[in-house]
Amino acid sequence: MSTSLKTDAPKVGFVSLGCPKALVDSERILTKLRHEGYDTAASYAGADVVVVNTCGFLDSAKEESLNAIGEALAENGKVVVTGCMGSEADMIRARFPNVAAITGAHQYDAVMDAVHNIVPPRPDPFRELIPANDPGVRLTPKHYAYLKISEGCNHRCSFCIIPQLRGDLASRPIGDVLREAEILAQSGVKELLVVSQDTSAYGLDIKYAQGEWRGQTWDASFEDLARGLGELGIWVRMHYVYPYPHVNSVIPLMAEGKILPYLDIPFQHASPKVLKAMKRPGNQDRTLERIRSWREIAPDITIRSTFVVGFPGETEADFNFLLDWLEEAQLDRVGAFAYENVDGAPAKDLPDHVPEEVKQDRLARFMSVAARISAQKLQAKVGQVVDVLVDNIRADGTGVARTKGDAPEIDGHIFLKGFTGLKVGEFARAKVIRADAFDLYGEPEGLIKLDRLPTARPKGKVHRIISRF
């Protein structure tokens, strides 16, 4: 999808850092810029201004953002900073006094004003021809897209500063969300990845206000959101879901094939003592109960999660409790991080910080258990026939695809050989013939022999300008 409006249009370079929620912010800013007649630059030198969308969640992410700002200033000189680090404007200006403007997270209008001050939009008589159902600029491949349903978070986890950066929970109207999803599906998107800071809390702040879509009334609730998205006939994947009791209501939709049997739940830990220090729900017995009940309803459900090891005060007993919990939970996909201090987060001031070498040792031990569980679960899939979505085709014809249990960027792949007619962004069926700790390997199942040879992944203008994803 080309987004250029005029070859002489003012050009904006864009650097996007951080999580999928920030990526959606970048897409919205780029869409607004396009609608005002701006084009994108393929290099710093070709840009009239550079926008850097920063990440400020961890100190390491902040340093990467600062490096990106410094690079943009050195290469271009006209830089607008936005995103989570916008809350630390004084620190940014102390290091980079020549930054043109600094705005906070999801402050789209402020970014536009800053760009206008540097390079005003030029009149374009064709701008009004952009259709109302335009899906906007996307930084993902054409066949999948992130759907952000809310901003902010009501939790006050002791290791997190997201509420300081993005505010409290602010849910979008249900009608707006479902209409955006429908437009994306009509534009060719085959998979929607639902994201927010707390997806299962969707609608709480607006008292589950009703909205209209397709001639029906829908509640702004997690369950109605899932039901509505399930009508689109494409893959729908739920991320950042907290294990509240009402999550149980969407599991039957997974069993029916309405949405993908996949839940991304940030458990973070299992030890009641550590969870309490993190200020997170700590009833791990009930969580294990729920996982068992979900698997009874939807046996093929994939549960992925992330964990923090080495949190202040975590003892060897706490860590072993976590390992035992992981063995019992048998999670399908697992990521983990060694605890890292964040300026402004209460956890930084907690006593009994764990030495770095102990944190790294625990991280390695934890991931060893997770890898073993993953290998066992994937080995059990050998011989099964699975639906896959093709993400890429290598030069040697090998297809790189994902099953229903694999989210892009964070989970594994299934590598396909022996196929004729594979196409990026299309579905296929494969028989799993081999597995390792994180990936599957498949061969053709059924007739998908089209009169086309495998082609390289298209390199369309997808705004991977000054790419940092």
General description of the model:
- The chain has 469 residues and is α/β, with parallel strands linked by helices.
- The protein contains twelve helices and 20 strands.
- The chain folds into three domains: 11-128, Methylthiotransferase, N-terminal domain (Rossmann fold), CATH 3.40.50; 144-379, tm_1862 like domain (pyruvate-formate lyase- activating enzyme); 385-444, Nucleic acid-binding proteins (OB fold (Dihydrolipoamide Acetyltransferase, E2P)), CATH 2.40.50.
- 30% of the residues lie in helices and 20% in strands.
- Helix 11 (316-329) packs parallel to helix 12 (356-379).
- 43% of the residues are buried.
- The model is unreliable at 1-6 and 447-469 (pLDDT under 50).
Write the layout of secondary structure elements.
Layout (H helix, E strand, L loop, with lengths): L10 E6 L3 H16 L3 E2 L8 E6 L4 H17 L3 E5 L5 H7 L5 E2 L5 H11 L25 E5 L1 E2 L10 H5 L3 E2 L2 H13 L4 E5 L14 E4 L2 E4 L2 H8 L5 E4 L12 H5 L6 E3 L7 H7 L5 H14 L4 E8 L6 H14 L3 E6 L17 H24 L5 E9 L5 E4 L11 E3 L10 E9 L4 E5 L25
Parallel strand pairs: 1-2, 1-3, 3-4, 4-5, 6-9, 9-12, 13-14, 14-15, 18-20
Antiparallel strand pairs: 7-8, 10-11, 16-17, 16-19, 17-18, 19-20
